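question for whoever is on the cluster today: can someone run the full assembly for these? two chains, 232 residues total. i dont have access anymore since they changed the login thing
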Amino acid sequence: AQTVTQSQPEMSVQEAETVTLSCTYDTSESNYYLFWYKQPPSRQMILVIRQEAYKQQNATENRFSVNFQKAAKSFSLKISDSQLGDTAMYFCAFIYSNAGGTSYGKLTFGQGTILTVHP
Amino acid sequence: NAGVTQTPKFQVLKTGQSMTLQCAQDMNHEYMSWYRQDPGMGLRLIHYSVGAGITDQGEVPNGYNVSRSTTEDFPLRLLSAAPSQTSVYFCASRTRDRGSPLHFGNGTRLTVT
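^ ran it for u. tokens below:
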């Protein structure tokens, strides 16, 4: 079974600074995808960024980028120029697909990291 | 485009009562799933479906039933509510394409007293 671990229950950062959220995972699969989701106080789940395991290039979306280390099974999220609106819980998630397709939709989530951006 | 619609947003039940959480999506997604979110535990998969007429159990299925009679709808039934089922519930859907992300509803906060 796949596991996803976020070892930082809470983090804080000053506005305009950079913060990195950690995520490690355990899998024997070679073909998979990793995601970061953001959950603001509104409770809505918002996709932040996606990484394909077979792509060595780290994904980037505006101020959000990842450091994907496949051998180390590490997938950290870097938020640059932090904004007050980045205050949220962030979830790391993993999904793979097998030949039968029955694992489709089975996203495995980490425990979450609460990020607070201070003015 | 409504996306994934969950109802109700909030619900309070007494122990032993039953209820159905509704979920509908208008994106023609093949895959739908239910998660529960509890503090310190992330989101855990309850049940999922890979298409109409096909459902399967996730990580924490006990006390819940699902059915998928249409592509659009995937209701979650609590058979006999227990305080341990107090949680926030999310319905989510995605296409069958590899790596396609989950699209989430806005969640239901359920309290069982």
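summary bc i know u wont read the tokens: The two ends of chain B are 36 Å apart (CA to CA). The interface with chain A takes residues 30-33, 35, 40-45, 48-50, 56, 58, 88, 90, 92, 94, 96, 98-99, 101-102, 104, 106-107, 109 of chain B (CB under 8 Å).
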